[in-house]
Amino acid sequence: MQRTQHLDALRQVVLRLESASPDATPVSLPFGVQEIDRHFPGSGLTGGALHEVIAASHGDRTAAFGFAVALAVQARAVRHGPVALIAARRCFADFGEPYGHGLHRLGLDVGQLVLVETRLDQDALWAMEESLRPEVGAAVVAGAVEGDLDLTMSRRLNLAAAGSGAPLILLRPPATMGTSAATTRWRVASAPAVRDRFGSFACCRWNAALERCRNGRPGHWLLEWNHVAHRFGLAEILADRAPAAGAGQDSRRLAG
Amino acid sequence: MAEKSGLSIGELLTNARSKVHDLQSRDADPAADADALRRLALWSLRYTPLAAPWGEENGADGLFLDITGCAHLFGGEAGLLADLADRLRRFGLPARLAIADTPGAAWAVARYGSTNGTIVPPDMTDSILRELPLAALRLPDDTLLLLHRLGFRRIADISHQPRAPLATRFGAHFLDRLDQALGRAPEPLSPLASPPVYRAQAMFAEAITTQEHVVKATTRLLHDLAGDLARDGVGARKLRLLLFRMDGEVLSLTIGLSAPSRDARHIAGLISLRLDRLPRGFEADFGFEAAGLHVLAAQPMPERQTLLTVADDLGDPAGLARLIDRLEQRLGAGAVRRLHPHQSYVPERAVLVRRASDGPSAEWASNTPSDARPLLLLSHPEAAEVMALIPEGPPRQFRWRGVLHQVTQAEGPERIAGEWWRQNDNQLERDYYVVEDANSRRFWLYRAGLYGRGAARPQWFVHGVFP
Asked: Which of A79, A86, A97 is best to mutate for the B interface (most B CBs within 10 A)?
């Protein structure tokens, strides 16, 4: 018992030393699910930091976008202020434009949302840095870029986020590899939806892998989004239908 | 034109219609008239610093210019009148002009004088006014009617009557008008105050060449302006920066702000961003020798009380406005937007996208449909080949953008009908389905039209995607 307490205290010290602004204690944005929050150093997603969300494949990009919006909604529950969504034009070109009523349904306060569309990635990165200035008072900044991000740029974004205390949630294309200064990296794929007891597709579900988590442990969960309470939950044991459908497809592919 | 057809001002529309059968009529717009008159008065400040547009009691269709001591600048009174008449004619404004000793006399001669452009010599006011009808005294209609019935026609008829009975019969105002016209009583004018001009200029002892110096000089100019702006309680919404280059070239930059501001640092930052965006880069070949800064549009800016307790649960609206300004300066005006709800059942019409600087978004909570809506909406619905088990049922599989999707579950339909009250709206009924394919991706599909109605087979479209 003594030992674990010591370890926890030491972890907190290391966390403070490693964070970009050592004097401020980082705010954490809890998921509200014990199983997940345990993986993070401060019992939740770190507030002023860069978090990357990567789609598992091209078709999962809408799922990844939905996941990023859900993270933003979760951050909005803790922090007040406007929300900025900044995207380079090519990011959503295949799937249309963010739709107000859809965002509202996920729980985002669309009245507080400012949408920024840029032609180039570098303009989008600049806009993110500007939105993270402390005097703007943004609750959360969500961004999407199409190209690669070097370590220096990601470090800059991380510092900007630390300066404002707002989390920066950055959507990156599926092929993303390599190093970055991000505090967490999520790889997200869509998962089969379940019907609620009224027979409608009430919740979105994601296969979310926490690939890296600074000072924490990676993990892998089947997450679902509660459309009423606007928070994450762990999906219960997989519905019997979903694996069967996947298996059926595989066998077809083998046969063909 | 109207007078040639025998029409006159004040005539009933029905009478006028009976005279001219193809008469076009427009509703009167007094506010717009007053505004136009004000603008004309502002323009006429080129002749004199004192211009007063007419109020209701003068007919609200002209203006007084006090040209005392100004006429010689235009070659005397005749020269001024000719110049004014010429310019008004070129504006397409037929006007009646007169110069007299008093505003009342000038009004009377302009309205009822025998010729346009009369100049009443200083000692002739009395004798010229005497010949004019009583209406030239700016009297109310009922007084005029009464005077007419009593047999008074011209000003001469009453100017020699005993004053006391006239005053008791028609009120003191009646005699005031007569005295004002003859110059026996003062008539104060309410001259138009010219709008304040906020501009600052600076000459440089040595030409400046770097962007950094330009920004620094602009900051100084802004500091000069800030005092005037603060005194009037306004902030700048639009500014123009003029940079005068040694070789005579003038660089002109216009900068718009989403909220009124007189913060020198913020505006200088915007100018720096704007300079970055110049199409040919910042060209200061020979250096700039002077700079001028003009406020093109100013708006009242309430003083904000600084809070002692930091209210960190409310974001600072000024901080957001500044962010929007900076983003617009670098990315262009259309790049920063907000979504507004709109009352419509048709999904693509239910959201309006506006510039963020146009103001905050409306209330969403009460304006959103209860049914499922996609997170991303395609800008145009895209046709899909759909196979359904039963004609009116949900899709079983569909091909979109060349990829075949097997539908594992579907929800719907949600029927959305066209808005028949809109003109040119021949939109068919749409049955929307939320479908999930084998890769557990979810789409929003609709069938346009119904089976068995109309000749064409219903078409299927993909309209959006869900997370």
From this structure: A97
- Exposed, middle or buried by CB within 10 Å (0-12, 13-18, 19+), for A239? middle
Domain spanning B200-303+311-325: CATH superfamily: DNA polymerase, Y-family, little finger domain (3.30.1490.100)
- A58 and B CB contact within 8 Å: no
**Chain B contacts of A201, Cβ < 8 Å?**
372, 409, 411, 434, 436, 442, 466
pTM given for the model: 0.69
CB-based contact, A120 to chain B, within 8 Å? no
- Other CB atoms within 10 A of residue A6 CB: 10
Q: What is the pLDDT of residues A143-195, one digit of tens each?
A: 999 888 888 999 999 999 988 889 999 999 888 777 888 999 999 999 988 87
Q: Length of chain B, please?
A: 467
Sign of CA dihedral B44, B46, B47, B49: positive
Based on the structure, what is the number of domains in chain A?
1
Amino acid at B2: A
Task: Measure CA B189 to chain center.
Answer: 28
ipTM above 0.90, yes or no: no
> pLDDT tens-digit profile of A209-232?
999 888 888 999 999 888 888 888
First to last CA, chain B: 67
**Whole-number Cα distances in Å, A126 to B211, B331, B352:** 20, 10, 26
Of the residues B414, B435, B466, the best mutation for testing chain A's interface (the one with the most A CB atoms within 10 Å of its CB) is B466
Q: Which residue in chain A is spatially nearest to B367 when comparing CA positions?
A: A101
We report the CATH number of the domain holding residue A201 as 3.40.50.300
